[in-house]
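Let us walk through a complete example step by step. Step one is to write down the protein sequence. Step two is to encode the small molecule, pyridoxal-5'-phosphate, as a SMILES string so that its atoms and bonds are unambiguous. Step three, shown after the inputs, is the structure prediction itself.
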Amino acid sequence: MTSAVEQLHAVKAKIANAEREAKREPGTVTLVAVSKTFDAEDIRPVIEAGQRVFGENRVQEAQGKWPALTEAFPDLELHLIGPLQSNKAKEAVSLFDVIETVDREKIAAELAREIARQGRTLKFYVQVNTGSEPQKAGIEPSEAIAFVKRCRDVHGLTIEGLMCIPPAEENPGPHFALLEKLAREAGVAKLSMGMSGDYETAVAFGATSVRVGSAIFGNR
Ligand SMILES: *Cc1c(COP(=O)(O)O)cnc(C)c1O
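Step three: the predicted structure of the complex.
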């Protein structure tokens, strides 16, 4: 079996190639290695190979494995990429550096309160439900621009970008294009889009970060 470290290098090479093909500056796309369901022992070699940015989708699971790792490697950057319940805002603010899944007023207010209480500095993305799927988290595309503005003006959150998870069975290109357009109109610079199956496409559509799990760590 190919090791996670070998797969990490392969994914990085493909990202570099996709940047080149899209005529983008080398190194402008950040790889967020998605380590959900994998243990600290699986993750550590990937950190030792130089990877610094990681994504987790559950607050409780992340609390179990990351505090020891961030103590050992203080320059790690941890992203929350899964849905956040407001009763977990406190833990999320204390553990994560970036929360990519802000998608409703209540959670924005709760995060703002926790940041003030804990005196932490975090960055945020607004998650957009580009396919308007009823079961999926994220704000409706038609409400995204106004919501970004409210997150900034009313709640004082540093919204850096937008994030999306296109419908699994659809061509992701139009969803990536929509997210790029909304980000431009909302005046945010970052685009978190693309996963193991479509990260090279996402780079072509302007992703500034891609969230890749199984292509690095293997099947979950
Ligand atoms: C699990 C997950 C990923 C990574 O998915 P892979 O297909 O394993 O690369 C990316 N983004 C989110 C939000 C996820 O939950």
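Step four is interpretation. The first strand starts at residue 30 and ends at 34.
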